[in-house]
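ok trying again, last paste got cut off:
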Amino acid sequence: MAPTGRAAGSMLAQDGSRFTIPVAGGPLVVELQDPPAQASWRFEVPAPSEMVVDLLDPGLCRVSGVEPAEVRLPAGYVPPPRLLLTINGVAHELVSRDERVLDRHYSRPRHQDIYVRSDAWLRAYHTARVRQARRLLGGVRGRLCDVGSGYSLVRAAGPWSFQISACDRDPEAVAVLREAGIDAVCAPASDPPFPGASFDAVFAGEIVEHLPDPERALRRWVELLRPGGRLVVTTPNRRHLLARVRGYEKVENPEHLFEWDLAELRLAIDEAGAAVDRIEGLALPLPVYVPGRGWRDLIAGTVRRVRPLPPAWTVRAIEAGRRVPGLCIDVAAVAHRVR
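nice, full thing came through this time. structure:
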């Protein structure tokens, strides 16, 4: 999400949808750094003023008292909750935890398609995640709640001996799961509308980083478990090896409101009333310096640019960091309810 080789110049995060940024007088060029959309604004600002970026405003960017000289914005554009703009070349990262912004983004028809690419590395990564789910949920019986399920990685990893219930903000995904016979409801992952102590396991796959109040969500997921029930949480690791080598951390997914490191994940699970049994990693990056582009992951870069590469080799490479989770791009924690 941030410009190549460096972190964004500034970052603003808040509960609302509206951001105010001071701007100097003179020419003002604003460019949206959201690859699926090409958007820009040009203003002639007579004196120092304020630019307002409102993620619920169809126009998105405005300058007080100034009409834009030029606007390029796709019709019906719906911004993700994390947005990167450059203002006269300076990066500004805006993160909105507003529930209205989240509902609007996740309820957009086929919203997941915009981030899907025909990409060998992503296909192998998905396969590795399915294999991981089979391993981490092995032995579960009874009922499982898949929170923030999307189209349900748990379902893809089956068949299972347990019954799946699911919840997600995306009505299309919920409809697909219902057609498959799964008890699915359209609701935020942070507050599944199911009774407490009614599940033997809760699976939260790549969802906690999307939530405005992750600590509250974890407490709710633990409440759903019967005593001793299993909680599985997978999430990006903010302090993976590549971040450590390049000397700064950045959130690259425009849907992520934050990312934890390994210690923060452990603490959050503990404070939610569960005890961590084990943690494993997925996708250990191998940093390599590319002139003009900065530090890159050799594994992902090779898989995406070299043909042909056996898919099984790629999956094994992604799984290679399982025992060094603190250095991996993604971590998975398995815990059980203790109170």
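cool. Residues 120-136 form the longest helix (17 residues). The chain has two domains: 10-106, 114-337.
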